[in-house]
Specification:
Largest sheet: 2 strands, antiparallel
CATH topology of the largest domain: Farnesyl Diphosphate Synthase
Low-confidence stretches: none
Number of strands: 2
């Protein structure tokens, strides 16, 4: 398969919504303000270390595609980003992670108790933001995503104990864990400018397919190739069964499968054993299989966009989709 590639930079992709993103930064910053000095200091730190803002970009571009950005769109983007940030803060506590995007995590600087309370605060600010603006559908869309993210994480933990994940279960996990939030971002962007439930659902499905493709791209990073660089082996060390590995295990003999599972369970901290699992996945065709699946989901997302009217936001959405599925890290 020879996938489409975009040569446009992220700033060029943002062009149709560049002004809106600038306004959003202040809107988001204001939505986190607190009278408590410690909270204000921590939320200021969060704003300073913000990432590429891919999810707000999906919100604004979907809104622009479906009728044009309105005031409610800023509420939608802030709600998505507040709840997303809350889940990241909590994830770092759960994972004992001390870095996020090259910065120290909240729990690394202020310890777990403070990090959990900050996550709770951000969650409540998001809920109140939606209620204060009577944005009930937006609240429903994003709250459903947070529920599914929790379910996906717990399902993955449950299955990791026995390493018995089938492909259908894997897709259920990533649909909930990763794709649900991107789906809610796209649906919320549409819902901020139209009441047409068919269009809102179309954009939700668009976001879900992109979220699944996005996660498969992450899976590929673990095993490395010319596109994504050196293998990291992080998922293997954490005993996570990703799509390339699941495919390889289903194609293996019983004895080889037992050996690989034993290596993942009992020797996942040993570099040479992790490297053996990576070679096994490559030899079994797991990488090629996963890459084809990623491009298939991306193609299905493009098909949804094809039904939408032509404008600059539509082209930027296509380029953003290519950007997140061709990214190098």
């Amino acid at each position: 398969m020879n996938p489409a590639r975009s040569t446009r930079s992220l700033s060029e992709i943002q062009a149709p919504i560049a002004e809106e993103l600038k306004i959003f930064e202040k809107h988001f910053r204001d939505s986190m303000r607190s009278q408590v000095a410690l909270l204000d200091r921590i939320t200021f730190y969060i704003v300073r270390r913000k990432g590429k803002q891919v999810r707000p970009m999906f919100v604004f571009l979907c809104a622009a595609l479906c009728g044009g950005v309105r005031q409610k769109t800023f509420t939608a983007a802030s709600l998505v980003e507040l709840l997303h940030t809350a889940t990241l803060v909590h994830d770092d506590v759960v994972d004992d992670s001390y870095q996020r995007r090259g910065f120290f995590s909240i729990n690394a600087l202020w310890k777990n108790k403070v990090a959990v309370l900050v996550g709770d605060y951000l969650l409540s600010r998001g809920l109140l933001l939606a209620l204060d603006n009577e944005a009930y559908q937006l609240l429903q869309l994003v709250s459903r995503a947070v529920k599914e993210m929790s379910e996906g994480e717990l399902l993955q933990m449950e299955k990791a104990r026995r390493l018995d994940i089938e492909e259908s279960v894997y897709f259920d996990i990533i649909r909930k864990k990763t794709a649900s939030l991107i789906a809610s971002a796209c649906a919320s962007g549409a819902a901020s400018v139209t009441d047409d439930q068919t269009i809102i659902e179309q954009m939700r499905q668009f976001g879900e397919k992109i979220g699944i493709a996005f996660q498969i791209r992450d899976d590929l990073f673990d095993f490395g190739d010319d596109d994504v660089g050196k293998p990291t082996g992080i998922d293997i060390k954490e005993k996570k069964l990703t799509l390339p590995l699941i495919y390889a295990l289903t194609r293996a003999s019983k004895s080889e499968r037992r050996r690989m599972i034993r290596l993942i369970k009992n020797h996942n901290e040993e570099k040479d054993k992790v490297a053996e699992v990576i070679r096994f996945v490559w030899k079994s065709g797991g990488m090629e299989y996963a890459r084809k699946a990623m491009y298939q989901y991306r193609s299905e997302a493009f098909s949804i966009l094809d039904d939408m009217p032509e404008n600059s936001a539509k082209q930027s959405l296509k380029d953003l989709v290519i950007y997140v599925t061709e990214r190098k890290k």
